[in-house]
Amino acid sequence: MARKTKEDAERTRKDLVVAARQVFHECGVSRSTLEKIAKAAGVTRGAVYWHFKDKAELFFAMREDVFAPVILRTDAFLYSPDYANPLDAIEASLVEFFSVLENDVTVREVFEVMISRCEYVDEFASVQEEVSRPALHFLEKMEGVYRLAAEKGMLRTAVSPEAAARDTWAFTSGILHLMFGVRRSSGLERLIPEMIRAHMAMRRP
Q1: Among 14, 38, 58, 87, which is least packed, fewest CB within 10 Å?
Q2: Residue 60, CA distances (Å) to 52, 134, 142, 151, 170 in order
Q3: Domain count of the chain?
Q4: CA 131, CA 140: separation in Å to the nearest integer?
Q5: Nearest 5 degrees, angle CA 124-CA 66-CA 31?
Q6: Which of 173, 84, 144, 182 is nearest to 199 (CA)?
Q7: Do both 94 and 194 map to the same domain?
Q8: What tens digit of pLDDT does each residue of 54-87 get?
Q9: Which CATH number belongs to the domain containing residue 166 in this structure?
Q10: What is the DSSP string of 79-133?
């Protein structure tokens, strides 16, 4: 019975995370309430508070539910021993990231919520630093791999690893904001692999 209770609790938690993503995406984070999320999950508001202390904690659970597997997939390319040239690893990692974003509806919805459907005000004003943490980790990883490329003589001598990493950070962030700021009929997604190749070509000797 204890095992069943634990399994039921875990299922309820997962249902709440899914419901939160759907409600955040449909209503926007600021207009979403725990009551709406509870109703979408088919549970009481008390059940929400059993698992999450507030909307911000539920928001982060939604993010981590998607971010963790995506990071594992992209890091598998970024740190793969199959690439003798670290720049090839960065390129493959970026292509994989946007491929996942394009083909996985759940991942896409979470990024859309974070970029265009969340206002970092009121109760969310104090969590913006935590929201930005994955981007900072991305920057640190990029700098490390670019530094390795420089050590191997595979990065243009006029480009520092720090500048290259920040440029790739800005490039990636820019594409994300364009994806969620223009209509899909613009054809941007189709051009992303070519854009990534061009971005990386400018770093090669």
Answers
A1: 14
A2: 10, 12, 24, 37, 23
A3: 2
A4: 16
A5: 35
A6: 173
A7: yes
A8: 999 999 999 999 999 999 999 999 999 999 999 9
A9: 1.10.357.10
A10: T-TT-SSHHHHHHHHHHHHHHHHHH-HHHHHHHHHHHHS----GGGGGGHHHHHH
Most distant CA atoms of the chain, gap in Å: 65
Q: What is the mean pLDDT of residues 100-129?
A: 85
pLDDT tens digits, residue range 146-172? 999 999 999 999 999 999 999 999 999
| Cα–Cα distance list, 72 to 27, 111, 186, 193 (Å) | 30, 17, 30, 20
Question: What range defines the domain where residue 131 resides?
Answer: 63-201
Say if residue 4 is in the same domain as residue 83.
no
Rounded CA separation 164/203 (Å): 8
CATH number, domain of 44, equals: 1.10.10.60
Residues 69 and 154 in one domain: yes
Q: Which of 14, 53, 55 is nearest to 36 (CA)?
A: 55
Helix (H, G, I), strand (E, B) or coil at 71: helix
Instruction: Scan for tokens 């929201």, then name that residue.
Output: 131
Same structural domain, 189 and 93: yes
Do residues 12 and 39 lie in contact, with contact meaning Cβ atoms separated by under 8 Å? no
Cβ of 161: how many Cβ atoms within 10 Å? 20
Is 58 contained in some domain?
no
Query: 């109703």: which residue's tokens?
Result: 39
Residue 158, in any domain of the structure: yes
Determine the residue type at 89.
A
Q: Is the domain of 83 the same as that of 182?
A: yes
Residue 145 contacts residue 89 (beta carbons within 8 Å): yes
